[in-house]
Specification:
903 residues; alpha/beta; Rossmann fold; Nucleotidyltransferase, domain 5; Taq DNA Polymerase, Chain T, domain 4; 26 strands; disordered N terminus
Length: 903
Amino acid sequence: MSASDTGDQRILLIDGHAMAFRAFFALPADGFSDGRGQATNAVYGFARMLINVVSSERPTHVAVAFDLPGGTFRDRIYDQYKGGRDVTPPEFIGQIDLIMQVLDALGVRWLTVEDYEADDIIATLATRTAAEGGEALIVSSDRDAIQLVDEKVTMLQPIKGVTEMRRMTPAAVEEKYGIPPERYSDLAALVGEAADNLPGVPGVGPKTAAKWIVKYTDLPGIIAHADEIPGKAGQSLRDHLEDVERNRLMNAAVLDLDLPTDPGHYTLGGGDRGRTAAVFDELAFGDTIRRDLPAVLFGEDADAPAEQEPVAEVLELDGAAGLHDLLGEGAGPLALTVADDVRGGPMLGIATGEARAAIRLEQLDSDASAVLAAALGGPREVRTADVPAVRSWMQVNGYPLGRQARDLALEAFVLRPGARSYDAEALGTELGGARFEPRPRKPADSTLAKETPEVRSGHVAVAAARLAEAASALHPAAEELARRQGEEPWASGILEDLERPLQEVLETMHGRGIAIDRAALAALREEFEGFVAQAKREAGAIVGEEVNLASPKQLQVVLFETLALPTTRKISSGHSTDAESLTDLQEKLEPGSSGHDFLSWLLRFREMSKLTGYVVGLDKVHDSSSRVHTTFQQTAAATGRLASTEPNLQNIPVRTAEGQRIRDVFVAGQGYETLLTADYSQIEMRIMAHLSEDAGLIEAFRTGEDLHNFVASRVFGVSPDAVDPAMRSKTKAVSYGLAYGLSAFGLSRQLRISRAEATDLRDGYFERFGGVRDYLRSSVETARSTGFTETILGRRRYLPDLTSDNRQRRENAERVALNSPIQGSAADIIKLAMLAVERRMRGQELDSRMLLQVHDELVVEVAPGELETVREIVVEGMDRAYELSVPLEVGVGIGGTWREAAH
């Protein structure tokens, strides 16, 4: 590498592991997942950091350095090096490999060197670049990199997560530490580095160390004059000279690693947008991060005018004739997309096999509207994604959608559950060969107010073109889905016999809604808000000041400084204040102590704030008839379970007395006399018994014994009469844990017992119920060989990660292989029951009607005089939905409110 090659080089050097860990702790692991159980918070945070730094610093070259497992030469010098570090969080495992995949897609070079650390790679490249006339920027939280800073080398030191950086120039280093950068390693040798488990001189801090360095020039000078240094600090230095000399040896940067010298090896611009999009899809990253990718990563000119999306044919409105020209006289299928555009209002993308267009509904005259209504409500097949949502949108805008609508999202979901999205653009991209740029950000109101008519018209044209393109792409997507269904006939069976009929039922249930008692809702809201206020007052009284209990930052001060409680797990902003951490902390405290009482009120505040949020949300969504209309989604859960949204009526908390009271506001509506609820008893365990053919479980269900009591008596080797509540609770947790793929570690956390006890408990369970053990083992191995799991109806879930080289992904896939057949079969059975109940009630022309499905429970609104008929229909429909080797048990409750109808 010659100076002429590097004189204008500006290389960005990133400490990969250090920044990945900072990203991991800066973002919640449970908020970022690829949808298959692999946490991606470190990957997302790292990618965001890279985007920000590349955009702001405009480097010409980039390299990311990573550590290798197994230690380095420094561990041979000092076997306690980096000892005492916390165990790597399980959620972090696997994310470094994913970061490397992102870097490969972005064309960013990453490096590792056997027996050396990332610091050494960075030191070699930084000093080489500076020596040959270039400039280096080091992104690292490791303070050892400070020794590299000079006029050509700047350190960007993160001070808040991975987004806020401090520029460490020679002047900044001297201002902060009182010494030039080249002497920082001397200072670190004296002070030590806790993160690396390198103890320094006791009683000597950075200020004292800096004073000595200034007086004696450097560390050798200090050591040479150690006998002259007075006081306790001087004696402490003399007592720990070996530690100081070892520290200096350990923190010395290696500057001569054998690394590629060709600048082209690190040049920015080799990224591949298609490959990046594919990786981001795998990681389930959204549009925002895609929009922010700097053009320089892909060798594009950032200053060149942005290329507008090609404008598809957009209908020039000239009344009904224009629509006739588009739709033609044939009966071929139409494809449809819909959107509410901030500039263009309600818009349609519509396409035949030969033409595509976009229509602004507000611009249609009455004749054109009639033509459109006839086409969409007629016998032609209409291909779209999410038929219920599109039908609802069309109705709001005054147009029908016929019963010939074909839901491509539902078809894609059945074939491949668990995708990031099933919207029209996702289907068009994956199955129709289309390509869409990331969606533009929604403009601020102030931006819209300043737009000229010409600018606005241009934006509308681009939005229209995108809608038309998405509609057009649905045609090849539909053909591809048909081809795949032909190859996998099981999918056609699930669609025709279960999902499509159920979709019609769910749309009907959405239209019915469920009634609420608005007066009871208002009273409950007032009461809950009073509980929240009380929790605030009592918590504040304990510490003698008002505390914002919703502020993690304030809570950290109150908990760990004011109350001086033991610290919880470390996070980027201090110490965790999440529910699990605070519950663990409270268990360590003496009941009646100020810390214990404060935490009690804090947890009470959180619980009641959450419940208040539910109540406030319900108050916003009821219609003029005081009915709430939830939307049931068939494509949200990969297991096939239904999801409830806007509002979610499946997650109303029922574990606490206050949570159960929310169900009191749901009532039988006007003209109906009661609500009836019916649910399956222990359906997952019954399916487990059926699939595993375990004689013990089958015996328990056939004899009608208390399952968990029966299991506990055998696991603990006692008579059924001798089973105590703790035994029953533990075996119940094991039973359901196995059905949900829970590991021994997860079981230990749930039961708050040691992992060893959890393992013994699980092993004891397997010893008594060998059929369950054998079934679980064989289900994973069978799925690994076939590539998929199956429910009792033959619904498949493909799991390519079962053979992944990424351990975290592989283990997550194994858990899915354990629980999908059980949870998926439970979902299939309740869906069959819903179809049977709805069909019987319609067939007998009853006024009673099914309103809700909440996992294993159905809620029915019963008309006067129909209770016994409805009870019989519901019980028979659920009981006979599917024949297992053990009986299905259905419980029924009756009451004027949802809570009263519980049983």
